[in-house]
């Protein structure tokens, strides 16, 4: 059975996820996280796109991206193939680092974009790695709620829809949802 065709057009936004093969860790050390982030930065220069939110967990990644001239397939293929080479060489492995191909969910409106960003930023809390998303190092959340600037991420499109005090409003929105039932972005309309 052939794979379903991925929808892509200029300016399309996606929630991208990928997990380690057999759910194994894809990040074992601080340097691994830093290397993956540097590959995203290189990919942005090579195949320009925007990252609106991200979170790197030990065995999977979440990216909220907006394409420009290149499809998500071109972007993720570059990052993941380069990262797999790095990871396999560093740890003496061979074969696939990522399980299957990446998952992508097309974002169809701004509400969904904001909800997916919240879901991404709450991932470390849900996994009980921290009680506050701003304490998790491998996430773009701090760029949304503090003066911290992360050159990799562009939070402005989301924050511009959060009212008069966008950082405070986004933090409240995420905080309120920390206490509520967790909804996976695939359940959003």
TrEMBL record:
Membrane-traversing stretches: none
Listed Gene3D superfamilies: Transposase IS200-like
Protein name: Transposase
Domain of life: Bacteria
Cross-referenced NCBIfam families: REP_Tyr_transpos
Domain Transposase IS200-like intervals: 9-123
SUPFAM superfamilies: Transposase IS200-like
Species of provenance: Bacillus seohaeanensis
